[in-house]
Amino acid sequence: xxxxxxxxxxxxxxxxxxxxxxxxxxxxxxxxxxxxxxxxxxxxxxxxxxxxxxxxxxxxxxxxxxxxxxxxxxxxxxxxxxxxxxxxxxxxxxxxxxxxxxxxxxxxxxxxxxxxxxxxxxxxxxxxxxxxxxxxxxxxxxxxxxxxxxxxxxxxxxxxxxxxxxxxxxxxxxxxxxxxxxxxxxxxxxxxxxxxxxxxxxxxxxxxxxxxxxxxxxxxxxxxxxxx
Length: 228
Description:
By secondary structure, this protein is mainly α. It has one domain. It contains ten helices and two strands. β1 (45-47) and β2 (53-55) form a beta hairpin. α2 (24-34) runs parallel beside α3 (66-88), α3 crosses α9 and α5 (106-129) packs across α9. The longest helix is centred in the last third of the chain and has 29 residues, at 142-170. The radius of gyration is 21 Å and the shape is globular.
């Protein structure tokens, strides 16, 4: 409602959006939640000409260049994981705080995933080359096997969910490449996390706001969507 936006505008110099936050839409949603404002997450569907149901949403192409993709991810990480927590503080019940913790730990998760990927590649390389000194560092025993098995099951579950969700919108042909894109996504997220930390803390040291590092949006044409 307009009343909720007017209340937020009183905290942001007359504007409902916080112009000094790199993810102002994310901050707006959480600011409304902190004020106990009700919100709805709508998933409208429509029937296409062939009779299939398609999700009604605004689509855009994620940057197809490595540098642009890292810049985009870094901007999101600065706004979500670094700026928003300092502005909002702690609020909500236990479940809400646990949900928000996943957002606020996204930089840690990105760096952990990157380290795990590098260790996995080093381990496979050591096994392939027969380097006994390297393979001796790999933990063994029932506890290590149990942890590895749990991680494997969670990885398969996450990968399966990504493939299924992607297939629902773009078809199984596009979804079949999810396992190939997954390692690349880990590298992009890890590099973006490093960039986000450098940009944010250097800006704090100079007592300035982080620079808006906007990337150009590319919206897919109808022909491109049919080709997916």
